[in-house]
C-alpha cells in the first residue's frame, strides 16, 4: 500500500479535510477540525486512533502496529505496507471514533455517513 492509496482512503471519508499544519510534507486528515489520520513527512506509517489504550497496546504487542509518535497512547502507527484491508479498516474506525466525539452541532454540519 502506498501513501497515495492511504490518502485516497482518508479522502473518501465524508467531510474529510486534508492539511499540512506543521509544513514539511505531512498528510494530516481531519473531520470537524479533529485529526483522524496522520502520515508523517517520512511517509512510512499512518497514525490512527483506536477505541482504547488496551486496543492500541494489543495491536502493538502483536506486531500489527507501533506506538504513534507524539500522539496519545490510544493512537497507533501502521506501516503503509500493511494489508490493505487492515489499513482501510483502521482508517475508517479512527474516522468514526473521532466523528462520534464531535459536538452535535459539528456532526450535523457534516455529510451523512
From TrEMBL:
GO molecular function: DNA binding
This protein's record includes keyword DNA-binding: yes
Gene3D superfamilies for the chain: 3.90.1150.30
Origin superkingdom: Bacteria
UniProt keyword annotations, A-Z: DNA-binding
The protein's name in its UniProt record: Predicted DNA-binding protein, MmcQ/YjbR family
Species: Paracoccus halophilus
Source lineage: Bacteria, Pseudomonadati, Pseudomonadota, Alphaproteobacteria, Rhodobacterales
Amino acid at each position: 500500500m502506498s501513501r497515495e492509496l492511504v490518502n485516497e482512503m482518508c479522502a473518501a471519508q465524508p467531510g474529510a479535510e486534508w492539511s499540512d499544519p506543521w509544513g514539511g510534507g505531512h498528510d494530516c486528515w481531519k473531520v470537524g477540525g479533529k485529526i483522524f489520520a496522520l502520515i508523517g513527512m517520512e511517509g512510512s506509517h499512518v497514525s490512527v486512533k483506536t477505541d482504547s489504550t488496551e486496543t492500541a497496546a494489543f495491536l502493538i504487542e502483536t506486531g500489527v502496529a507501533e506506538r504513534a509518535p507524539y500522539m496519545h497512547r490510544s493512537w497507533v502507527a501502521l506501516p503503509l505496507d500493511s494489508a490493505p484491508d487492515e489499513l482501510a479498516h483502521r482508517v475508517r474506525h479512527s474516522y468514526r471514533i473521532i466523528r462520534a466525539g464531535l459536538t452535535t452541532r459539528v456532526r450535523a454540519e457534516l455529510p451523512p455517513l
